[in-house]
Amino acid sequence: MSKKKAAKPAAKKSAATPVKKTQKAVASKPVKAADAAGGNKSRMTENRLFKPSAEFSGKARISSMSQYKKMHEESLKNPDKFFGREAKELHWTKPFTKVLDWKCPSAKWFTGGKLNVSENCLDRHLQGPRKTKAALIWEGEPGEKRVLTYQQLHREVCRFANVLKRHKVKKGDRVVIYLPMIPEAAIAMLACTRIGAIHNVIFGGFSAESIKDRVLDSGAKIIITADGGYRRGAVVPLKKNVDDALKAKDTPVETVIVYKRTGQEVHIEEGRDVWWSRELEYVDAHCPPVTMDSESPLFILYTSGSTGKPKGILHTTGGYLLHAQMTCKYVFDLRDEDVYWCTADVGWVTGHSYLVYGPLAVGATSLMFEGAPNWPENDRFWKIIEEYAVTVFYTAPTAIRAFMKWGDEWLQKHDLSSLRLLGTVGEPINPEAWMWYHTKVGGGRCPIVDTWWQTETGGHMITPLPGATPTKPGTATLPFFGVDVAIVDDLGKEVGTDEQGKLVIRKPWPSMLRGIWGDKARYQDTYWSEFKGWYFAGDGARRDKDGYIWIIGRIDDVLNVAGHRLGTAEVESALVSHPAVAEAAVVGRPDEMKGQGVVCFVTVKEGVKTGRELADELKKHVRKVIGPVATPDEVRFAVALPKTRSGKIMRRLLKQIAAGEIIKGDTTTLEDINVIAQLVASGEN
Ligand code: WTA
To answer: How many Å lie between the centroid of ligand 1 and the Cα of residue 82?
Structure first.
């Protein structure tokens, strides 16, 4: 669940922030995590332990810690054997000859093997009783309901794949998908995989400008969109955003396929735009899957980094699918009889791996909901859980905190006894929210899997296994199979118990990213150069006395706002593209609900009048440039930004000011100490 926009190049105007790869928030000398984590204090003292019930463990695939430890050890010591065995559960058109070929930072998994993702997610389930079971259950925001069985979903995917072929989409072509949360989003993704096209899904909360940047960067020649989507009763003008994005002169896009969702009038460009439903009239439902190499690109998904331009994270076929399948099997312990609901949008990686590919690979029933948790009322999610008898529920801590705020009465109106397992993802969960989730939603009987992972990792990396791992509120606990985690200082030395350090992964894993689209150097530089040969995740963490890993959060210039990733440099770049702005620096501040809020420090050009009006205008401007996901919480005007004598913005100070903390630490390198007093007084209110 994350978000970012392709940063508008900050032409001529210098985006104020000198962008460096990681802030050295983690000192070479390890610090006690409580100090560094600030508001995380309750996570420091948390030590309650929740063991899985004998009933849950008895049925689970991994039912004890000794089984987990044995398998984890084997997965690290003998990955060829471990993953070679696991991979046999996929359907290979041609078997692989080698499990792993690793030459840092290039990993090749299951070389020689050939397979097709849509065949694994659909065709192979058509032989037995799954043929007529629900693959997707969908509810629209206005309340419409649709169920697609495996057989029906297969048919729709084949038909739409033929539509793509009709429009000359071939293996390796990039296809942008900008759709609301409707079954057609999954159909379009699977149709791409059927013919070997590489999809690039863009979250509906991104602007025209963000679409434009992603289209240009990925070189997509086709966009699949809808007239609009519903969000809290309003219509999001998706097609209009696409039209605006395509005004760019150099756009590679030749065709736009439009699905009619909301029915409002939209512009149709002759010779470019076609209607989804009309196109289906020209095709049949026969479309054999194209055989792909295990390492063929599967999709690109843009995500924020510390520098201005979002990165097109590239995932490939065999390893990604295996990890998605394995985690659905071991972490969600999915069964044929489960009704599984992941609330993430398909525009984020969670929607890719845990709404579409993973659940369908294991033949589960996946529920998709188009709307917001509080529309038309605060109990919409609980209503859905009751109505469809959801058994496994996966959502974000931000949502849980919102439910807590809205009050228990909303869930008390509903029967949630169908639930057997709960999950969270996207940001650290505070123990209070964890306990509420456990007692109020899970009725004290459902294990919670707090899953740490990233767009880049493709699937869960640190997570409890629900039938084995005793959980503690606030920790993602232990690494998944094949994941070799270490927490290290700046020199790569492991830090001690309860000391904060940088989270690294020391071995390749099947679903790791294979690159950044079109930028080999950036791939190497961003992930593999901080510590030679290890993947640096950008997160800070600590390990407690039981070996459990507590994620502290990002230690680079990436914010996590309501579980959405946002680069400070992207917001800065958007701000300086406004004619009134001279310089901008953006930092996060702790936010009880969203995890982090976005605070912008702005200096304006000579003669520009500052005040509430301009602050509101700048907020709107950022929304327009990046999308609603990036809306700043606060804009503060400054006479100058605090800089070192060599001209670097001192973000550490800005973070403290934004959080309302008294300035701590060394300010002797500051060029002009008076700047600080002015900044502290610059609050919006
Ligand atoms: C954060 C989302 C703590 C983390 C799947 C990571 C988490 C970033 C957790 C990736 C968790 C994700 N506990 N923090 N369980 N899960 N994060 O790429 O900072 O949108 O680096 O992937 O979210 O965000 P992304």
So the answer is: 26
